[in-house]
Amino acid sequence: MKSNLELYKSLYLIRYCEQRIIDLYHENEMRTPMHMSFGQEYIPVGVCSGLDMKCDITSSYRSHANFLAKTADYKSFFYEMYGKEDTVGKGKCGSMHLGDPKKGHILSSGIVASQIPAATGLAFANKYKKIQNFAICFFGDGAIDSGCFWESLNLACLFKLPVFFICEDNEWAVHTPKSDRRGYKDLKKIVGNFDLYFYEEESNDAEILQKKVNEAKNKYKRNPKPIFFNIRCYRYLAHIGIETDWNYNYRPKKVYNKWKKKDCLKIQKDKLFVKYDKNLIKNTEQNIEKKVDAVILKAKKSKSLNSREMFKGLFYEND
């Protein structure tokens, strides 16, 4: 598992990369819609580190934090944001479809809940082939309202698959609260009745989550059952875009203020202040910033796809 310093590096990388998107998006060179991970970074960092990165993940369209936590590949991240060809997706994936199967991020999907059966199938394949990897599926609480979630959960329990269902529960499906979407009040009473390990978490602390995920992994090894985590979190920005959404008056700002006090970066940074010199932490942050900024400059200047390459791989081509 990762140390506090390593956890903080991963969290800071994600936060800084997204901050640079906010800073530069107005230039209109990143021609892709953005679903930002601000405030939710501790979830993929804690989950992936709890499994010592020995996992393959699928993600929703809110994929930035998941991709960077799993791969740490900020070069491919920004080359994709700028639509450049020197990346796995050849600049065609944009923000919502990030992935690099060779580095364990199998896919991100723009269709709500569609990544869940994909992760379940991946877990089945790993078990069938005796590959000692867990499949991790990240999804928002809105995806639980989809039928394919329940079908996947049921199948995973029947086959005792090595899969983590990670619900990034930020309370909202776009602008609709859970109370307007669900005919039940307690998710644990429903999902917890399946033959699986059920966890709840809302600390915003990547270290605590890392330990819980590691514990769940060891439980699976002793007695195989799929694992479900309902992880409370809070997205700081709007459902889509780089702005806040207070002007819509659907989320009270007092809830934001409550979560902001226990920001996941602040939690880890406060721990570091106890162990390390402040200059070390500052240098760590500056080093990340310097590397990311250098990549952004290169991404801006690098080659874009030509019109012929733009449509390759999108349709069947009979050579």
Q: What is the compact description of this entry?
A:
The chain is α/β, with parallel strands linked by helices and 319 residues long. The chain has one domain (4-308): Thiamin diphosphate (ThDP)-binding fold, Pyr/PP domains (Rossmann fold, 3-Layer(aba) Sandwich).
Structure notes:
The protein is α/β, with parallel strands linked by helices and 319 residues long. It has a single domain, classed as Thiamin diphosphate (ThDP)-binding fold, Pyr/PP domains (Rossmann fold, 3-Layer(aba) Sandwich), CATH 3.40.50. A six-stranded parallel sheet has the order 2-1-3-4-8-7, with helices on both faces. Strands 5-6 form a two-stranded antiparallel sheet. Helix 8 links the parallel strand 7 and strand 8. It is globular, with a radius of gyration of 19 Å.
What keywords describe this structure?
globular; alpha/beta; Rossmann fold; 6-stranded parallel beta sheet; 12 helices; 319 residues; two-stranded antiparallel sheet
Distance between the termini: 48 Å
The first-level CATH class name: Alpha Beta
Structural class, judged by helices and strands?
alpha/beta
Shape summary: globular
The ordered string of helix (H) and strand (E) elements is: HHEHHEHEHEEEHEHEHHHH
- The count of helical stretches stands at 12
What's the arrangement of strands in the largest beta sheet? 2-1-3-4-8-7
Record field, number of beta strands: 8
